[in-house]
Amino acid sequence: MNTPHTPAIPPSVAQTPTRAMVLTLGLVAAICGLIIVSAYEGSLSAVRDNRRVALERAITKVLPGAHQTLSYLALSNGAIEPANSDDTPVGALRFHAAYDTTGRLMGIAAEGSAKGYADTVRILFGYSPPCACVVGIGVISMRETPGIGDKILTDTAFLANFKSLDTRLNGELKALANEVKTVKHGTKTQAWQVDAISGATITSRAVGRAINDAAQALLPRLVPQIDQIQKAP
Description:
Shape: elongated
Radius of gyration: 29 Å
EC number: 7.-.-.-
Oligomer: single chain
Structural class: alpha+beta
Helix content: 25-40%
Enzyme class: translocase
Pfam families: FMN_bind
Main location: membrane
Strand content: 15-25%
GO molecular function: electron transfer activity; FMN binding
């Protein structure tokens, strides 16, 4: 006679309490967050130093001979004040004053940007108060077509536009006397025009617009107050 078969009872599986799971995940998230914040804080000083060095090199490129550079803000109320942090308040315009070895102001560097062929073209341009003109440009960032758009960095005829590009203000000191405008290659007739590069017209126009827009905004605030920053503090 066979013994009746008793079904096997499956072993019970211990259930992880929901509270324990939440606490564990929370602890892991907290540790990861602490690591990320620590890494950010630890590298922040080096990042700022690298940015400062890169900016000083860019300013020296557009204003050769600069011995010292200081950052300022041109406020919407017309006041000029030192820029004591990396933040630019809403409505303020940041610029950089370059001084020679005697501490005298030798030029202003400011950033401008405009849409190019592939993306926004960001430039830094140097402004000379004595001639009221742009005396050099450098590219901060762009993603234009290699071999075409990047000619704005190497084309000597194009770069010659910025040896003395007229950016004088009008009699009321409210705007440029003449809009900086990029013209078709070979048709430049005025000191405030930018002669485009043949085959890279879109990028050339972006440079012209970037200078014009930035100068139209900054110079009417800066020029009437420029005596305040003629000497390095």
